[in-house]
Amino acid sequence: MFRTVRSCAVALPTRASTLRAYHSINLINTKPTEDYNPKTKKLLDAAMDLVPSLGFTDQALTLASRRLGYTDTTPLVLPEGPLDLIVYHLRREREKLAVASETAPADPPAAPTTPDFRTKDQRLDDACHELIVQRLKGNIPVIEHLDNALALMVQPQNMAESLSELGALSDEIVHQAGHRSSDFDWYTRRASISAVYAASEVYMCQDKSKNFEDTWKFVKSSLEARRGLQEGVGNVGQWVSFQGIASVMVIRSLMTRL
Prior knowledge:
mainly alpha; Tetracycline Repressor, domain 2; two-stranded antiparallel ribbon; 9 helices; 61% helix
């Protein structure tokens, strides 16, 4: 049902307050769910409540639609079905990161009791680690269906939208981590955060440790490996090549689940 009717589920951003400037792209919407048609958003929220039991499926969307009293012919029907639901999950969880940042206390942190000997790069990586873990925790309620969602996202016809969402998340993480320079490091860090996050989601799907502790360790070790690799690479071309190879390997690992 959800693949046969086209609709305009998402409107163009209209509120300047929800847009944030980044170096890698001109504007990115930090509150993307506000740009959905209100009734469509209500349908997606209702369907997300069913995802833990039904997965990212047409069944979840159909049942949510019936519970809300929507008819099969309503223009609120989502054309891509499960993919629309997955993308909504990605945007809603990214929005939570942005909202948490905007509502954080303005009071300065307490002075450290011990000297901080970390380099600037180490501090940025530690901040990225916390943000990646925070975002990954948003997958816990739907963890039983995450592997199927990832498999659908990496299908060729869905790659452009999937990579766009991954890039938007990486921008949000790097920005919140405190990276403000406009040099080449912004782009390399964004690319590496994308690779680390994507690999961490794959790892999380297979993680049986208590409270996903192994996944959080995997994130940390991956960031440390990224930093070591970057420091050991002699030129920009080599670094970009390494990032490209890492991204391809992540995508290939996801494709094996299809």
